Design the sequence.
Protein backbone atom coordinates (compact mmCIF):
# COMPACT_ATOMS: atom_id res chain seq x y z
CA UNK A 1 0.00 0.00 0.00
CA UNK A 2 1.34 3.43 -0.94
CA UNK A 3 1.49 6.01 1.84
CA UNK A 4 1.23 9.74 1.42
CA UNK A 5 2.61 12.38 3.77
CA UNK A 6 -0.17 14.77 4.86
CA UNK A 7 0.38 18.31 3.65
CA UNK A 8 1.38 20.85 6.26
CA UNK A 9 -0.04 24.36 6.39
CA UNK A 10 3.34 25.70 5.20
CA UNK A 11 3.25 23.39 2.15
CA UNK A 12 -0.20 24.65 1.24
CA UNK A 13 0.79 28.32 1.60
CA UNK A 14 3.97 27.81 -0.44
CA UNK A 15 2.01 26.01 -3.17
CA UNK A 16 -0.66 28.73 -3.25
CA UNK A 17 1.98 31.46 -3.48
CA UNK A 18 3.75 29.56 -6.28
CA UNK A 19 0.50 29.17 -8.25
CA UNK A 20 -0.26 32.89 -7.84
CA UNK A 21 3.28 33.83 -8.86
CA UNK A 22 3.23 31.61 -11.97
CA UNK A 23 -0.20 32.87 -13.01
CA UNK A 24 0.80 36.52 -12.52
CA UNK A 25 4.09 35.98 -14.34
CA UNK A 26 2.24 34.57 -17.36
CA UNK A 27 -0.18 37.51 -17.24
CA UNK A 28 2.72 39.96 -17.16
CA UNK A 29 4.27 38.23 -20.19
CA UNK A 30 0.93 38.49 -22.00
CA UNK A 31 0.74 42.21 -21.17
CA UNK A 32 4.24 42.74 -22.56
CA UNK A 33 3.32 40.81 -25.73
CA UNK A 34 0.14 42.80 -26.18
CA UNK A 35 1.72 46.20 -25.48
CA UNK A 36 5.21 45.56 -26.83
CA UNK A 37 8.46 45.14 -24.92
CA UNK A 38 9.27 48.09 -22.72
CA UNK A 39 5.62 49.29 -22.62
CA UNK A 40 4.69 51.45 -19.64
CA UNK A 41 2.67 50.16 -16.73
CA UNK A 42 -0.57 51.83 -15.76
CA UNK A 43 -2.68 51.25 -18.86
CA UNK A 44 -6.44 51.78 -18.58
CA UNK A 45 -6.96 48.01 -18.46
CA UNK A 46 -4.51 47.60 -15.56
CA UNK A 47 -5.83 50.52 -13.50
CA UNK A 48 -9.59 49.82 -13.53
CA UNK A 49 -11.74 46.95 -12.23
CA UNK A 50 -15.44 46.27 -11.70
CA UNK A 51 -17.29 43.66 -9.65
CA UNK A 52 -21.04 43.14 -9.30
CA UNK A 53 -23.22 41.23 -6.85
CA UNK A 54 -26.91 40.99 -6.06
CA UNK A 55 -27.87 41.99 -2.52
CA UNK A 56 -29.31 39.08 -0.52
CA UNK A 57 -31.43 39.00 2.67
CA UNK A 58 -28.37 38.19 4.79
CA UNK A 59 -26.73 41.42 3.54
CA UNK A 60 -29.44 43.64 5.04
CA UNK A 61 -31.06 44.66 8.31
CA UNK A 62 -34.57 43.66 9.37
CA UNK A 63 -36.22 46.34 7.22
CA UNK A 64 -34.28 45.53 4.03
CA UNK A 65 -31.54 48.21 4.04
CA UNK A 66 -28.19 46.74 3.03
CA UNK A 67 -25.63 47.07 5.84
CA UNK A 68 -22.95 49.69 5.26
CA UNK A 69 -20.34 47.10 6.26
CA UNK A 70 -21.31 44.90 3.30
CA UNK A 71 -20.72 47.81 0.91
CA UNK A 72 -17.43 48.71 2.60
CA UNK A 73 -16.23 45.11 2.26
CA UNK A 74 -17.06 45.06 -1.47
CA UNK A 75 -15.33 48.43 -1.95
CA UNK A 76 -12.17 47.10 -0.29
CA UNK A 77 -12.23 43.87 -2.32
CA UNK A 78 -12.40 45.80 -5.60
CA UNK A 79 -9.64 48.15 -4.44
CA UNK A 80 -7.40 45.27 -3.38
CA UNK A 81 -7.85 43.45 -6.71
CA UNK A 82 -7.06 46.45 -8.93
CA UNK A 83 -4.09 47.46 -6.72
CA UNK A 84 -2.59 43.98 -6.55
CA UNK A 85 -3.03 43.45 -10.28
CA UNK A 86 -1.35 46.78 -11.07
CA UNK A 87 1.58 46.25 -8.69
CA UNK A 88 2.37 42.87 -10.28
CA UNK A 89 2.75 44.24 -13.83
CA UNK A 90 6.49 44.71 -13.27
CA UNK A 91 9.34 42.30 -12.63
CA UNK A 92 10.41 41.48 -9.07
CA UNK A 93 8.81 39.88 -6.03
CA UNK A 94 5.13 39.06 -6.36
CA UNK A 95 3.13 41.21 -3.96
CA UNK A 96 -0.30 41.73 -2.41
CA UNK A 97 -1.79 45.19 -1.86
CA UNK A 98 -2.53 45.99 1.79
CA UNK A 99 -5.07 48.62 2.82
CA UNK A 100 -3.63 51.41 5.00
CA UNK A 101 -6.31 54.12 4.87
CA UNK A 102 -9.83 54.83 3.65
CA UNK A 103 -10.73 58.46 3.03
CA UNK A 104 -14.20 59.82 3.86
CA UNK A 105 -16.81 57.46 2.39
CA UNK A 106 -20.21 58.87 1.44
CA UNK A 107 -23.33 56.70 1.51
CA UNK A 108 -25.37 58.76 -0.96
CA UNK A 109 -28.34 56.45 -1.37
CA UNK A 110 -29.54 53.36 0.53
CA UNK A 111 -29.35 49.99 -1.18
CA UNK A 112 -32.01 47.31 -0.79
CA UNK A 113 -32.40 43.53 -1.02
CA UNK A 114 -32.69 42.40 -4.65
CA UNK A 115 -30.69 45.28 -6.11
CA UNK A 116 -27.35 44.75 -7.82
CA UNK A 117 -24.28 46.59 -6.56
CA UNK A 118 -21.82 47.52 -9.33
CA UNK A 119 -18.48 48.45 -7.74
CA UNK A 120 -15.95 50.21 -9.99
CA UNK A 121 -12.41 50.78 -8.71
CA UNK A 122 -9.82 52.88 -10.55
CA UNK A 123 -6.25 53.80 -9.65
CA UNK A 124 -5.99 57.59 -9.70
CA UNK A 125 -2.56 58.27 -8.20
CA UNK A 126 0.68 56.42 -7.49
CA UNK A 127 3.63 57.39 -5.31
CA UNK A 128 6.83 55.37 -4.96
CA UNK A 129 5.36 52.98 -2.39
CA UNK A 130 1.58 53.57 -2.35
CA UNK A 131 -1.40 54.06 -4.62
CA UNK A 132 -4.78 55.75 -4.40
CA UNK A 133 -7.91 53.96 -5.62
CA UNK A 134 -11.17 55.83 -6.26
CA UNK A 135 -14.27 53.62 -5.95
CA UNK A 136 -17.87 54.24 -7.02
CA UNK A 137 -20.84 52.00 -6.23
CA UNK A 138 -23.91 52.04 -8.48
CA UNK A 139 -27.16 50.45 -7.31
CA UNK A 140 -29.27 48.85 -10.06
CA UNK A 141 -32.92 47.84 -9.86
CA UNK A 142 -32.84 44.86 -12.23
CA UNK A 143 -36.64 44.91 -12.60
CA UNK A 144 -36.74 48.45 -14.01
CA UNK A 145 -33.13 48.93 -15.12
CA UNK A 146 -32.89 52.15 -13.08
CA UNK A 147 -29.42 52.96 -11.70
CA UNK A 148 -28.24 55.48 -9.12
CA UNK A 149 -24.96 56.40 -7.43
CA UNK A 150 -25.00 54.80 -3.98
CA UNK A 151 -21.47 55.25 -2.62
CA UNK A 152 -18.10 56.73 -3.39
CA UNK A 153 -14.80 56.35 -1.58
CA UNK A 154 -11.03 56.74 -1.86
CA UNK A 155 -8.61 54.11 -0.53
CA UNK A 156 -4.83 53.96 -0.12
CA UNK A 157 -2.83 50.74 -0.49
CA UNK A 158 0.80 49.67 -0.17
CA UNK A 159 2.18 46.53 -1.91
CA UNK A 160 3.72 43.96 0.46
CA UNK A 161 6.01 41.22 -0.84
CA UNK A 162 4.63 37.66 -0.69
CA UNK A 163 8.09 36.54 0.43
CA UNK A 164 8.40 39.08 3.25
CA UNK A 165 5.32 40.92 4.50
CA UNK A 166 7.47 43.73 5.98
CA UNK A 167 9.03 44.51 2.61
CA UNK A 168 7.16 47.31 0.82
CA UNK A 169 7.51 47.07 -2.95
CA UNK A 170 7.76 49.95 -5.40
CA UNK A 171 4.58 50.85 -7.30
CA UNK A 172 4.61 51.07 -11.13
CA UNK A 173 3.65 54.65 -12.11
CA UNK A 174 0.43 55.37 -13.99
CA UNK A 175 -0.12 57.84 -16.83
CA UNK A 176 -2.04 61.00 -16.00
CA UNK A 177 -4.33 62.78 -18.41
CA UNK A 178 -2.60 66.06 -17.52
CA UNK A 179 0.11 67.46 -15.28
CA UNK A 180 -2.61 69.08 -13.16
CA UNK A 181 -4.17 65.68 -12.46
CA UNK A 182 -0.84 64.34 -11.21
CA UNK A 183 -0.28 67.41 -9.03
CA UNK A 184 -3.76 67.13 -7.47
CA UNK A 185 -3.04 63.49 -6.66
CA UNK A 186 0.26 64.44 -5.05
CA UNK A 187 -1.53 66.97 -2.81
CA UNK A 188 -4.05 64.30 -1.73
CA UNK A 189 -1.17 61.95 -0.97
CA UNK A 190 0.63 64.50 1.21
CA UNK A 191 -2.60 65.44 3.04
CA UNK A 192 -3.54 61.84 3.92
CA UNK A 193 0.03 61.10 4.98
CA UNK A 194 -0.04 64.02 7.43
CA UNK A 195 -3.48 63.04 8.78
CA UNK A 196 -2.35 59.46 9.36
CA UNK A 197 0.57 60.68 11.46
CA UNK A 198 -1.68 63.02 13.46
CA UNK A 199 -4.21 60.25 14.12
CA UNK A 200 -1.50 57.87 15.30
CA UNK A 201 -0.24 60.54 17.73
CA UNK A 202 -3.64 60.96 19.47
CA UNK A 203 -4.61 57.33 20.09
CA UNK A 204 -6.94 57.07 23.11
CA UNK A 205 -7.99 54.21 25.35
CA UNK A 206 -11.45 52.66 25.10
CA UNK A 207 -12.86 53.26 28.59
CA UNK A 208 -15.54 50.75 29.73
CA UNK A 209 -18.99 52.24 30.40
CA UNK A 210 -20.14 52.82 34.00
CA UNK A 211 -22.63 50.37 35.63
CA UNK A 212 -26.33 51.16 35.10
CA UNK A 213 -25.81 54.17 32.80
CA UNK A 214 -28.65 56.59 32.15
CA UNK A 215 -30.47 56.42 28.79
CA UNK A 216 -29.05 58.62 26.00
CA UNK A 217 -25.67 58.92 27.68
CA UNK A 218 -22.42 57.76 26.04
CA UNK A 219 -22.17 54.81 28.42
CA UNK A 220 -25.74 53.64 27.74
CA UNK A 221 -25.13 52.97 24.02
CA UNK A 222 -21.41 52.10 24.11
CA UNK A 223 -20.94 48.62 22.65
CA UNK A 224 -18.16 46.12 22.01
CA UNK A 225 -17.72 43.06 19.82
CA UNK A 226 -15.06 40.39 20.30
CA UNK A 227 -13.92 38.37 17.27
CA UNK A 228 -11.32 35.61 16.88
CA UNK A 229 -9.50 36.04 13.57
CA UNK A 230 -9.71 32.86 11.50
CA UNK A 231 -8.31 31.72 8.12
CA UNK A 232 -11.38 32.92 6.19
CA UNK A 233 -10.74 36.48 7.44
CA UNK A 234 -7.19 36.61 6.10
CA UNK A 235 -5.05 37.27 3.03
CA UNK A 236 -2.28 35.01 1.71
CA UNK A 237 -0.03 36.71 4.29
CA UNK A 238 -2.35 35.47 7.10
CA UNK A 239 -3.28 39.04 8.00
CA UNK A 240 -6.87 40.29 8.20
CA UNK A 241 -8.51 41.75 5.08
CA UNK A 242 -9.27 45.44 5.54
CA UNK A 243 -12.83 44.83 4.37
CA UNK A 244 -13.43 42.27 7.14
CA UNK A 245 -12.33 44.78 9.78
CA UNK A 246 -14.50 47.55 8.30
CA UNK A 247 -17.54 45.27 8.31
CA UNK A 248 -17.06 44.52 12.02
CA UNK A 249 -16.64 48.24 12.73
CA UNK A 250 -19.86 49.10 10.91
CA UNK A 251 -21.75 46.41 12.84
CA UNK A 252 -20.64 47.82 16.20
CA UNK A 253 -21.37 51.41 15.15
CA UNK A 254 -24.84 50.30 14.03
CA UNK A 255 -25.53 48.73 17.43
CA UNK A 256 -24.49 51.96 19.17
CA UNK A 257 -26.77 54.04 16.94
CA UNK A 258 -29.73 51.66 17.37
CA UNK A 259 -29.36 51.64 21.15
CA UNK A 260 -29.39 55.44 21.23
CA UNK A 261 -32.39 55.88 18.88
CA UNK A 262 -34.37 52.63 19.16
CA UNK A 263 -35.29 53.04 15.46
CA UNK A 264 -34.13 51.86 12.05
CA UNK A 265 -30.64 53.29 11.46
CA UNK A 266 -28.33 53.34 8.42
CA UNK A 267 -24.74 54.35 7.72
CA UNK A 268 -24.58 57.87 6.24
CA UNK A 269 -20.81 58.29 5.94
CA UNK A 270 -17.46 57.19 7.31
CA UNK A 271 -14.65 59.59 8.08
CA UNK A 272 -11.11 58.46 7.33
CA UNK A 273 -10.37 54.91 8.53
CA UNK A 274 -6.73 54.55 9.57
CA UNK A 275 -5.09 51.14 9.72
CA UNK A 276 -2.29 51.65 12.25
CA UNK A 277 -1.03 48.07 12.58
CA UNK A 278 -1.66 44.69 10.96
CA UNK A 279 -3.88 42.07 12.62
CA UNK A 280 -2.60 38.52 12.29
CA UNK A 281 -4.53 35.26 12.12
CA UNK A 282 -5.20 33.91 15.61
CA UNK A 283 -5.54 37.35 17.18
CA UNK A 284 -8.54 38.37 19.25
CA UNK A 285 -9.92 41.74 18.16
CA UNK A 286 -12.11 43.92 20.35
CA UNK A 287 -14.16 46.45 18.39
CA UNK A 288 -15.59 49.24 20.57
CA UNK A 289 -18.01 51.95 19.51
CA UNK A 290 -19.07 55.07 21.44
CA UNK A 291 -21.04 58.19 20.61
CA UNK A 292 -19.03 61.39 20.36
CA UNK A 293 -21.50 63.89 18.88
CA UNK A 294 -25.21 64.09 18.00
CA UNK A 295 -26.86 66.67 15.74
CA UNK A 296 -30.59 66.99 15.04
CA UNK A 297 -30.54 64.19 12.45
CA UNK A 298 -27.21 62.38 12.71
CA UNK A 299 -24.88 60.62 15.15
CA UNK A 300 -21.08 60.47 15.07
CA UNK A 301 -19.67 57.25 16.51
CA UNK A 302 -15.99 56.65 17.21
CA UNK A 303 -14.97 53.04 16.55
CA UNK A 304 -11.72 51.61 17.93
CA UNK A 305 -10.22 48.23 17.05
CA UNK A 306 -7.74 46.70 19.51
CA UNK A 307 -5.96 43.40 18.93
CA UNK A 308 -4.03 40.89 21.03
CA UNK A 309 -2.35 37.61 20.10
CA UNK A 310 -3.43 34.37 21.76
CA UNK A 311 -0.10 32.74 20.86
CA UNK A 312 2.12 35.69 21.86
CA UNK A 313 0.48 37.20 24.96
CA UNK A 314 3.70 39.04 25.83
CA UNK A 315 3.05 41.43 22.93
CA UNK A 316 -0.01 42.80 24.77
CA UNK A 317 -2.94 44.75 23.32
CA UNK A 318 -2.40 47.30 20.57
CA UNK A 319 -4.56 49.75 18.61
CA UNK A 320 -4.98 48.40 15.08
CA UNK A 321 -7.65 50.60 13.47
CA UNK A 322 -9.69 53.72 14.28
CA UNK A 323 -12.44 55.68 12.53
CA UNK A 324 -15.56 57.83 12.90
CA UNK A 325 -18.89 56.58 11.50
CA UNK A 326 -21.97 58.76 10.95
CA UNK A 327 -25.43 57.19 11.19
CA UNK A 328 -28.93 58.59 10.65
CA UNK A 329 -32.30 57.46 12.02
CA UNK A 330 -35.08 56.55 9.55
CA UNK A 331 -38.83 55.97 9.77
CA UNK A 332 -40.71 53.15 8.02
CA UNK A 333 -40.70 55.16 4.76
CA UNK A 334 -36.91 55.69 4.94
CA UNK A 335 -37.34 59.38 5.83
CA UNK A 336 -34.91 60.95 8.35
CA UNK A 337 -36.08 61.15 11.94
CA UNK A 338 -34.89 63.51 14.72
CA UNK A 339 -32.14 62.02 16.90
CA UNK A 340 -32.44 62.17 20.72
CA UNK A 341 -29.87 64.61 22.15
CA UNK A 342 -26.76 63.16 23.79
CA UNK A 343 -26.34 63.68 27.54
CA UNK A 344 -22.72 64.64 28.23
CA UNK A 345 -21.06 63.53 31.46
CA UNK A 346 -17.60 64.78 32.39
CA UNK A 347 -14.87 66.89 30.82
CA UNK A 348 -13.53 64.08 28.59
CA UNK A 349 -16.91 63.49 26.95
CA UNK A 350 -17.33 67.25 26.55
CA UNK A 351 -13.98 67.49 24.75
CA UNK A 352 -14.84 64.64 22.39
CA UNK A 353 -18.25 66.21 21.73
CA UNK A 354 -16.69 69.57 20.79
CA UNK A 355 -14.23 67.84 18.45
CA UNK A 356 -17.12 65.89 16.91
CA UNK A 357 -19.10 69.09 16.39
CA UNK A 358 -16.12 70.66 14.62
CA UNK A 359 -15.89 67.64 12.26
CA UNK A 360 -19.64 67.80 11.66
CA UNK A 361 -19.52 71.51 10.69
CA UNK A 362 -16.43 70.96 8.54
CA UNK A 363 -18.05 68.08 6.63
CA UNK A 364 -21.26 70.08 6.22
CA UNK A 365 -19.30 72.97 4.69
CA UNK A 366 -17.52 70.56 2.32
CA UNK A 367 -20.84 69.09 1.15
CA UNK A 368 -22.27 72.56 0.46
CA UNK A 369 -19.14 73.55 -1.47
CA UNK A 370 -19.32 70.34 -3.51
CA UNK A 371 -22.99 70.98 -4.30
CA UNK A 372 -22.19 74.52 -5.50
CA UNK A 373 -19.40 73.23 -7.75
CA UNK A 374 -21.75 70.70 -9.34
CA UNK A 375 -24.35 73.40 -10.03
Sequence:
Amino acid sequence: MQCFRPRSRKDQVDKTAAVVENRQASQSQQVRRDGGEGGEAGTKQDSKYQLSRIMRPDDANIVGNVHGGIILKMIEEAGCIVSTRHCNTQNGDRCLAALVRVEKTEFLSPMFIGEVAHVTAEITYTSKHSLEVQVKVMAENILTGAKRLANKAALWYVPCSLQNVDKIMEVPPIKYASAEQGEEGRKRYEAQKMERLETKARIEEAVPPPPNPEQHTVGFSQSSLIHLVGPSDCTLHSYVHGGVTMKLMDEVAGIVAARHCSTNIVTASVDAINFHRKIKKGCVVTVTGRLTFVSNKSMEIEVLVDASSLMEPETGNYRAVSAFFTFISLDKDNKPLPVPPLKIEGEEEQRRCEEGKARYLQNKAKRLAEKERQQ
Q: What stands out?
A: Confidence is low (pLDDT under 50) at residues 1-7, 23-42. The chain is about 35% helix and 30% strand. The first helix runs from residue 9 to 35.
